[in-house]
Amino acid sequence: MTPTRSGKFFTAMERMFLVLTFFLATAPIIPVVRLVRSGTGYLTSGDPLMQALWLVDYLVLFLLIAWNWRQFLAAMTRDKLMLALIVLVVISVGWSAIPLVTVRRGFALVCTTMIGVYLGMRYRISDQLRLLAWALGLAAVLSVVFALLLPNFGLETSGDHIGLWRGIYHQKNVLGRYMSLGGVVFLLLGLSVRRHRWVCWLFFLLSIALLLLSGSKNALVSLLVAWVLIPPAAAMRLPVSLKLPLLFLFLIFGSGIATLIFADLEGVFGLMGKDATLTGRTDLWPSLLDMWQEQPILGYGYSGFWAGWDGPSAEIWKEFFWHPRHAHNGFMQVLLELGVVGVGLFMIRFIAAFPPAIAWVRSSKQAADLWPLIYLPFMFLSNIAESVVLAQNNIFWILYVALLCSLTGRSSSPVPLASDPTHLALERRRNAHPLPLP
């Protein structure tokens, strides 16, 4: 095999690996099969098959990193705040209430973060979206197959949600969450690409249809917020004389909507199929704050709080008959596990991402490069209902780390392989022809 052909083969395998990693990071198929076979109506944490698949994924990742370790090491250590947050997770085993769980899940989080760094180091933001589109497109197609041909798996079969679609996921809200992400990704790509644009719009419509069939109101709100953010994000590219009036109008519009929402919270929650307590979540959070006050600075250690009757969560289980298995809020989760230090490090890094995100958006005319200013609020909003910050094997955390790596490195093209001198020419040709779409 010639050097050029070997470089092409490596690139193809690398892309396939990243697409499959994205797909695996949505936790597809295996959890819903376990759920249906168990007959209990809920999932216990941990699955040997998923753990084995992730171990294989990590092994492939380590091989890719070894192939290009100098650039990876530079990218991994460039973001000091992110590095400090990951170090905090690792050393939290020293005060964790469940140290063995902290070690296992902390290792998984480190590997998940490394995937994001590798992705951000190797691929432009627009190409990251194309890789993500392949994974979300696969998830959408398989979800249709499951719902139509395997309804016992693909449809909700109990409770108030009978008949709603869950596709290849264990719960309707999970399908809704990823289809809302697809509704953003395929829209931005549909506005950016020229070749195969119809494919983007087809999968955009499929994502919206699956989101509606899932009946997930939270995911629908997240998608609508992301869409609303597109015009002001695009306005960042305009001259100051036009940008400031448009942003001022958007601020007035947003303030008006917020006022209407807070004026009738009961009605808004009713439209979402919830009560003002968010189905009991706001009753849970004060009790969790009481537990946090016992270890406010560093928390209970990464994944060191929720262990049923065997961990600090036992106090919560005594109080709530429905036995919550997580905080139902990502920020509360981080606060419990890593205290104010962990939340502070995350928030400082999150806020610091906006100036380079604005600079990135202004430096390009492509709709796909609006992604930084769309995804940051989208992830923040997603983290309110579910924990995606510092979540191991989670697609949202991978995308966040990759985005930070891209913004920090300010690299618009992939890094050539250090060990393959012919790869630079390959990458130049590849940059002239962006990644294909699903």
From TrEMBL:
Keyword Transmembrane: yes
Main location per the UniProt record: membrane
TM annotation in the entry: 51-69, 81-101, 107-125, 132-155, 175-193, 200-230, 242-263, 334-354
Pfam families tied to this protein: Wzy_C
Cellular component terms (Gene Ontology): membrane
Record bears the keyword Cytoplasm: no
Cellular compartment(s): Membrane
Topology of the protein relative to the lipid bilayer: Multi-pass membrane protein
Keywords, comma-separated and alphabetical: Membrane, Transmembrane, Transmembrane helix
Annotated InterPro entries: O-antigen_ligase-rel_domated, WaaL-like
Domain O-antigen ligase-related span(s) in chain numbering: 202-347
Record's protein name: O-antigen polymerase
Organism: Cyanothece sp. (strain PCC 7425 / ATCC 29141)
High-level lineage: Bacteria, Bacillati, Cyanobacteriota, Cyanophyceae, Gomontiellales
